[in-house]
Amino acid sequence: MTKRSVTVDAAVRMLLSLTFAGLLAAGPARAVELPANDYPTVDRADYVFACMQVNGESRETLFKCSCSIDKIAELLPYKDYEEAETIMSIALKGGEKVAPLRYEKVQEKVKRLKKAQVEAELRCF
Questions:
Q1: pTM listed for this prediction
Q2: How many angstroms from the chain centroid is the CA of residue 49?
């Protein structure tokens, strides 16, 4: 081993030890916090499946529909999404039991979901 290779080897070891010491001094690594993902996977998949039925079954549409439910999830808590979906499902059936769904408070939940859907469509399609 030549004197030069020993010097380079020593320099590399010193650099590595200084880097390691710097990392220890900086403290523990912290994970990046992600937004809460409170939409169950099955509901996200159901949304994407229905979206693709309406907009076409291509890979591009898969990406757009996935983007859409992600944006809705950013804008609307799952509880509100679930309530609005339930209201709209019951309203489709019609009949006497639908009358309470016409109350302004109930309709506001549906309006919030539709507004989130429009926003998602603007961003993703």
A1: 0.68
A2: 16
* Unique residue bearing structure tokens 């309203």: 91
Q: What does the alpha-carbon distance between residue 26 and residue 99 come to, in Å, rounded to a whole number?
A: 62
The domain in which residue 21 lies consists of: 1-30
* C-alpha dist (Å) from residue 85 to 43, 55, 78: 11, 19, 10
Are 62 and 110 found together in one domain?
Answer: yes
Is 55 in the same domain as 93? yes
* Residue 55 token pair: 């907009």
Domain presence at residue 36: no
In this structure, are residues 112 and 76 in contact, taking their beta carbons and an 8 Å threshold?
yes
Q: Consecutive 10-residue runs of the chain (125 residues): their mean pLDDT?
A: 53 52 55 68 97 97 98 96 93 80 88 97 97
